[in-house]
Amino acid sequence: MSDVYIPGVRSRFNSEQIVQDLMRLEQIPRDRVQSNIDNLQTQRGYWQEVGRRITALRDSSRFLFSFQNPFNERLSRSSDENVLTATATREAAEQSFRFTVKQTAQADRFLSRPLDERTRIEAGTYSFTVGNDEISFNYRGGTLRDFVNTVNNRGRDKVAASLIAVQPGTLSLLIESKLTGSENRLSFSGETVNLAVNTGMMEISNDTQRNINLTENTIRAGSIDGGNVNAANVTVNDGILKLAPRATASIPVNMAIGTETPLVLRLETQTRVESGDTFNIPQTPPGPNVPAGSVTHSGITVHNEPSNAPFDFTPPPPPVRQDNLEVLNIVFTDGTTAKLPAITDSSSFTARQYNLSDYARGKTIASINIENSNTHREISIGKVEILDPTSTSGGLRPLNAVSTSRDAIISMEGIEITRPTNQIDDLIPGITLNLRGVSERPVDLNIVADIDAVKDAIISFVGNYNRLMTEINVLTSTSASSMPDIRSNTRGDTRIVDEITYLTADEAASMKERLGAFTGDSTLRNLKNNLQRTVSAPYPTSLERELTLLAQIGISTNASMSVGYNPAQLRGYLEINERTLDAALANRIPAIRELFASDTTGDLLADTGVAFNVDALLRPFVETGGIISLKTNTIDSRINQDERRIATLDRQLAAKEQELRIQYARMEAAYARMEQMSSSLDNFNQQNRR
C-alpha cells in the first residue's frame, strides 16, 4: 500500500523528504554559526562568573579597611549580666569600668482589689498625669475591658492599663506609667480619682510631704573641736548649707515617724576637696609694737628705744588629714542617734534618699546633724525634704503599689550617678548601660574588640580568595587537549575539581564543564600570579619584624604544616591555621589591622596592606568599563554579528526551500502531465485497433 500513488495526497517521488534532506545540507553553515553563538554565550557566562568572584573578593577586601571595618566593632562583657549589661557602638574605646547598681529605675504601677468581671466603669472625664504630661479623655461608660482598651488607645505611650485574672470571674485592674524615674509620677484627677478609690486602688490620705527650709535662723552651727565658730565656717545662701572643714551644723526637724512608715528623707549633697596635704602653718606673730620717738617736758627730753623684749612662739603641729564621708546623723528626742550611710564625693549636687523606717523605729526625729570631721573637704547640703514616695499628687496613697516611680542610682568608680531610666547612654561615649538588678558588690564592665567579627571577616576574605583562585585554575587548566566545543566536559584534568572538597555535586559537575575553557588566556594567568604575590608579600606594621606576613597569623598556602607533596598547595589556595589565627587575634589586633591596611603617609587614608593592595589589583577588572566588562562586551558584539548573519542565512534558507519546493512541484506536475498524455495515447491506440 505504501507504493500506491494518490494524486494530491502522496508525492510519487517523495519530494518532501528530498527537500528536507537538501535543506539539511544547506543549513550546515547556519548551524555552525549558531554553535559559535552558543559557545560565545557560554564564554560570556564564564566571564560573568569570574566577575562575580572578583567582586566578592574585592568586597571582602574593602570591608577589612572601610569605614565599617570589623576592627572598630566593640563588645561589652559584664561580670554579672543579671545586674548590668551594655551595648557598645564603634565609637566606644576599649576600656574597663566598675559599677555598683544601688537602685534600678521604676515606674508607678497601681493595682486594684479583685473586681467582678461584670463591673462597669461610669461615664465621665478621666485624666492622668505623668510628670508634666496630662492625658485626658471623655469616656462614655462601659465594661472593664472596654475601659482598658480606651486607656491604651489614648495613653500616648505614657499610660497603659491591663486586667489580671485573679480567679475565674474576678479581675484586678492595673494602671501603670510607661515612663520610669521619680520625676514621672503617675497622678489621677477628675473621675479617675473616684475610680481609683472605688476599686480599692487608692485611698485618700493627708499630704505627708514636708520641706525643711534651710535658713541662718534655723541652722545651729558648731565645731568638731568645740571652739568658737567662725561665721565663715557655716553659711546658708539661697537654701544651700555649706560647712567648712571641721564644722558642724544641726537642722531641726521635730517629726514623729511610725514603725512601718513609707516616709523617706531626701536631700542633695555636694563636696569640694581642697588641694594639698596639710593646712597652712601659722606664721610667727610679730609681738608688741612700741612706737619710737621722744617727749620733752620742762626742758627735759626723753627718747624712746625700740622694744627688745624676747618673744618665744612655737607654731602648733599641722593637723593629721582626716577623710570621712559618714557625715550625716539623725538625732532623736530620746537622745539616741542613727548614722546614715556615707555620701560620695561629687562636684555637683547629687540626690540621696534614706528610708526613715530603717532608722527611726517609731521615734521622733529631733534634728539632722552634719558633722564635717574632714580636714580638707567642704560639704554642702541642699533641698532637704521628708515625704511619702508612694503618695501621688492630690492626696492619694496606693493601697497595692506593684512598683513606685524612682530613679536609677549607680556608682561608677566611686562616683554616684542618678538617672530616670535603666538605659543610660549619656555617661560614657558610645556605650549604653542596661541596668537589670541591684548588686551588693561591684560589677566589672569591659569594652573589648569584637574578635569574632574580625575573624569572620578574615575567613570570608580567604574563602572568596580561594573561590576566585579555583575559578581561574579550572578555566585555565592545560592538563589535557582542548576540544573545539567550549561546552565539552572532556577538557582538562578533573583532579583540579576533585581536590576541592567543599563543592556540592552540582557545583562540581558545573566546574568540570568549565575545565580548560580559557586555556592560554593571559589575563586570568596574570591575575592569578599577581594575587599570589600580593598575599605573600610583607607589609609594614607597628610591630615591624614581629608581624609583617599573613603567614605569621596562620594564613598561607601550607598553614596546616603538612609534610610531603600536595598538588593542591601548588595551585595558590590559602589555608588557615585556626589556632595560630586565634592567638594572633587575642594579642595583636592593632598590628593585624595594619597588616591588612595601614596609612604610611599620615593622611588618615590607607595606602598599603594585603586587603588594600588586593582591592587595588581587582579594581580595574570590575569597575565601570573594566576588563570583565570589555570581555563581555566584545563577546556580545561577536554574538550580535553572528545573530545578524543567522538572520541573513535564515532568509536565504527560506528562499532556497521555497525555490526547491517550487521546482519539485513543477517536476511533479510535469510528470503528471506526461503520464496523462501517455494514458491518452494508449487509449487512442486501443481505439484504432478496434
Description of the structure:
There is one protein chain. This protein is an alpha+beta fold and 690 residues long. The two termini are 35 Å apart.
Q: Shape from CA axes?
A: elongated
Average per-residue pLDDT, rounded, comes to 85
Strand content: 25-35%
Spans of 5+ residues with little confidence (pLDDT < 50)?
A: 1-9, 480-490
Helix content: 25-40%
Distance between the termini: 35 Å
Number of helices: 12
Based on DSSP secondary structure assignment, what is the total number of beta strands? 35
Given helix and strand content, the structural type is alpha+beta
Radius of gyration: 49 Å
Largest sheet: 6 strands, antiparallel
What is this entry, summarized?
With 690 residues, this protein is of the alpha+beta class. It is built from 12 helices and 35 strands. The strands form 10 sheets. Strands 14, 16, 17, 19, 24 and 26 form a 6-stranded antiparallel β-sheet that branches. The chain has a 5-stranded antiparallel β-sheet with strand order 1-33-3-29-30, with no helix packed on it. Strands 4, 5, 10, 11 and 28 form a 5-stranded antiparallel β-sheet that branches.
Describe how the helices and strands are arranged.
Blueprint: H1 15-26, H2 28-63, E1 74-78, E2 84-88, E3 95-103, E4 109-111, E5 115-116, E6 120-121, E7 124-130, E8 133-139, E9 142-143, H3 144-154, E10 159-167, E11 170-177, E12 186-190, H4 191-198, E13 202-204, E14 210-212, E15 220-223, E16 234-237, E17 240-243, E18 247-256, E19 264-273, E20 293-297, E21 300-304, E22 328-332, E23 337-339, E24 350-355, E25 364-371, E26 377-387, E27 396-398, E28 401-403, E29 408-412, E30 415-419, E31 423-428, E32 431-435, E33 443-449, H5 451-475, H6 495-498, H7 505-514, H8 522-536, E34 555-556, E35 575-576, H9 578-587, H10 589-596, H11 610-622, H12 627-689
Antiparallel strand pairs: 1-33, 2-32, 3-29, 3-33, 4-11, 4-28, 5-11, 6-9, 7-8, 7-12, 10-11, 13-27, 14-26, 15-18, 16-17, 17-26, 18-25, 19-24, 19-26, 20-21, 22-23, 22-25, 29-30, 31-32, 34-35
